[in-house]
Design a protein that fits this description.
The complex is a heterodimer. By secondary structure, chain A is α/β, with parallel strands linked by helices. Chain A has helices spanning 33-40, 62-68, 84-94, 99-112, 128-139, 158-173, 185-191, 209-215, 231-236, 263-273, 288-296, 300-318, 323-334, 336-351; strands at 2-4, 7-10, 15-17, 22-26, 50-53, 56-57, 69-72, 146-150, 177-182, 194-199, 202-207, 219-225, 241-247, 252-257, 278-284. In chain A, the strands form 4 sheets. In chain A, strands 7-8-9-4-10-11 form a 6-stranded mixed sheet, sandwiched between helices. The longest helix of chain A is centred in the C-terminal third of the chain and has 19 residues, at 300-318. Chain A is elongated and about 80 Å long. Chain A starts with a strand and ends with a helix. Chain B is mostly helical. Chain B has one domain (21-281). In chain B, 70% of the residues lie in helices and 1% in strands. Chain B is built from 12 helices and 1 strand, in the order E-H-H-H-H-H-H-H-H-H-H-H-H. In chain B, helix 4 packs antiparallel against helix 6 and helix 4 (94-105) runs antiparallel to helix 8. The chains are: A alpha/beta, B mainly alpha. Chains A and B meet through strand 3, helix 1, strand 5, helix 2 and helix 3 of A and strand 1, helix 1 and helix 5 of B.
């Protein structure tokens, strides 16, 4: 658990990452992802609860934890006045690598991330994608067994993004354990073995990408009738979850459905029995997006604006330059009561 | 209850931890070099320790020099140079405040904090880099002084001692500057420390003009101002005119001791305080 002033940024987040796997920590802005990462990387001290990284307690053995982790944080954490190479060597030296070893490793990583040409240029002249790749390289200087990548592709163009993805996939071959936070569902889907969805500082879903999609009951039924029929709604109402929406002058019916096994057959039979002619029937399986939106109550946009509005309040509370993270967390608490009901529903949906 | 576990693969051996002291020295040295690289990237940052001493020395000697009689005799340039050294070194400590404040406002500090390094190396490395630039500044003041007619009247050891006295005091001041930088909202507000504290502190002293003409209350401040003790002590060590020696207050009678005591006391108070502020600013 973690509080910033009166803002509860994190409460009850439970997860573990088996060695050599990638865990995706997924959630909207302000869900508490960054707070979780800051606690596990010893940057923040939890108010309650426990975290162990590589077998070491984050509160009682922060030095050992730091010795075993690499961190690529959300905002640029390299020195803009040093060259790419100087940055890597500095990180290596401060990690007790020794100068010669740090230099050798830096050259190796610069080559691996295709930064050799820019290695001796000052960081100021780097593009966003180059900085991110250098940040990743810096996190891998000591070949740490545990890596934290906090939104490693936020703000990158598609090409840079896929390069970063490749670099992360390469890590798996080395048996590295990765905690990846992201707002992008496709990123979690593409990279993570398991996904933990957090919102408002809580875990609201946990499973493999496939499990999450199956567990979600947000499949969608759409029926197009040959002509409007008053009996159609009554016929399919028992088969769907919630209300049946009637669109297009009564020709199109739309509804959320709970389960989809054999659903189409049941719908056709019910409509046929009611004497309704059907042109088209579609049962759309949930994408990870649907899962995400149904779990988080689809308030991403709202969250972002609130986050900006709250920025002052929270950066005062934690008094740090990374106010953006803190502020997002503030927004989470701000909207908590409003979304409480919705959230409770979706949690049940996943658990049952 | 929050339980979070990350399990490492077998077979990883983290970089070996060196002995505590060796590791700390290595960290400080790495951070010192980082700050020196910063200076090399923006040489104009150095103007306050390179151009400013040359300009100020020439301006004071040629503009005020003729108009300021030294009680007890002696040339103004011989009188001035110790004060010039103090003025330049004292005001350049502002750079420490600005530099640390900048460090804290950049994301880099988070990376340092997640590394297995000695955290205070951020502070000590900064003060070491500033000490090195102060040495450069002292050298430039000395050379400029010699060029405009300053002549010390003491042996070499005593002359070097005079330089070290001011450098030690300036080093102690960097820790006050560090406290200011660690508590300021932005690098810009850290910079105001120089104009609000350091300049008045240097001017209300015997650094630039003899204190005899000042109003009584200001003389009292000037006589007990640590800058006056440092400047008078340096004048004594350099064998240059020191009219303050006639003032019957303890620091002016024993300026070298007073300067050393001031420096040690400031260091003993503000270095631990800076470490405390640094810890507070980087704990959440």
């Amino acid at each position: 658990m973690k509080r910033y002033g009166s803002t509860q940024a994190l409460c009850g987040v439970d997860f573990s990452v088996p060695a050599g796997t990638i865990l995706g920590l997924l959630g909207p802005n302000g869900a508490g992802k960054t707070t979780a990462v800051r606690i596990l990387t010893t940057l923040a001290v939890p108010d309650a609860g426990r975290g162990t990284v590589a077998g070491f307690d984050v509160v009682r053995q922060p030095g050992e934890v730091r010795r075993h982790i690499g961190v690529a944080a959300q905002d640029a954490t390299l020195d803009p006045l040093l060259t790419g190479r100087q940055n890597l060597v500095l990180v290596g030296e401060l990690s007790d690598m020794g100068r010669a070893a740090a230099r050798a490793r830096a050259s190796e990583l610069l080559a691996q991330f295709e930064l050799t040409d820019a290695a001796d240029r000052v960081l100021k002249g780097y593009s966003g994608g180059m900085r991110r790749r250098l940040d990743l390289a810096a996190s891998m200087m000591t070949r740490p067994p545990v890596l934290f990548l906090d939104e490693p592709t936020t703000g990158l163009d598609p090409t840079s993004r896929s390069r970063v993805w490749d670099a992360i996939r390469d890590l798996l071959g080395d048996g590295v354990t990765v905690l990846l936070t992201t707002q992008y569902l496709d990123e979690a889907d593409a990279l993570a073995h398991r996904i933990v969805v957090v919102d408002h500082g809580r875990v609201i879903a946990d499973g493999t990408p496939l499990e999450l999609k199956e567990a979600s009951r947000s499949a969608h039924l759409e029926v197009t009738l040959s002509e409007p029929n008053a009996g159609a709604v009554g016929a399919i109402a028992p088969l769907v979850a919630g209300k049946v929406h009637v669109l297009d002058d009564g020709r199109r019916l739309s509804a959320g459905v709970d389960a989809s096994t054999g659903l189409a057959t049941a719908v056709v039979r019910a409509l046929d029995a009611a004497g309704v002619l059907v042109d088209n029937i579609e049962v759309r399986q949930p994408s990870l997006d649907d899962v995400f939106f149904s779990l988080t109550g689809g308030h991403i946009v709202e969250e972002v604006t609130d986050g900006e509005a709250d920025a002052d309040g929270v950066s005062r509370a934690d008094g740090r330059a990374s106010g953006a993270d803190g502020s997002a967390d503030g927004a989470a608490a701000g909207t908590y009561s409003g979304n409480g009901h919705k959230q409770a529903e979706s949690m049940e949906g996943v658990r049952s | 209850m929050t339980t979070t576990t990350l399990i490492p693969p077998v077979g990883f051996s983290p970089p070996r931890s060196k002995g505590a002291l060796v590791g700390r020295v290595a960290d400080v040295w790495a951070m010192t070099r980082r700050n020196l690289v910063h200076i090399s990237r923006e040489p104009m940052q150095l103007s306050d320790v390179t151009l400013q001493p040359v300009l100020f020395t020439i301006l004071f000697v040629y503009i005020f020099g003729g108009a300021i009689p030294i009680p007890g005799g002696g040339s103004y340039v011989d009188y001035l140079l110790a004060g010039m050294l103090a003025l330049n070194l004292v005001t350049s400590t502002m750079g420490t405040a600005v530099g640390l404040s900048t460090d804290l406002h950049e994301g880099m500090i988070d990376r340092f904090r997640a590394l297995p390094m000695w955290r205070s190396a951020v502070l000590v490395g900064r003060s070491m880099a500033d000490l090195l630039t102060s040495c450069l500044c002292a050298l430039i003041v000395g050379i400029t002084g010699l060029a405009v007619g300053w002549r010390p009247g003491a042996n070499y050891i005593s002359i070097v001692g005079g330089f070290l006295l001011v450098l030690f005091f300036a080093y102690a001041l960097t820790w006050i500057a560090a406290c200011v930088g660690l508590n300021s909202k932005s690098p810009e507000s850290a910079a105001s420390f120089g104009f609000i504290v350091l300049f008045p502190m240097t001017f209300v002293s015997n650094a630039l003009v003899p204190t005899a003409h000042m109003p009584g209350w200001m003389q009292a401040i000037a006589n007990w101002n640590p800058v006056s003790a440092v400047v008078a002590g340096t004048r004594v060590l350099w064998g240059n005119p020191n009219p303050s020696g006639r003032i019957q207050v303890w620091p002016m009678q024993h300026p070298v001791w007073a300067a050393l005591i001031w420096s040690v006391v400031l260091l003993a108070i503000f270095a631990p305080l800076a470490a405390h502020f640094f810890k507070r600013r980087t704990t959440e």
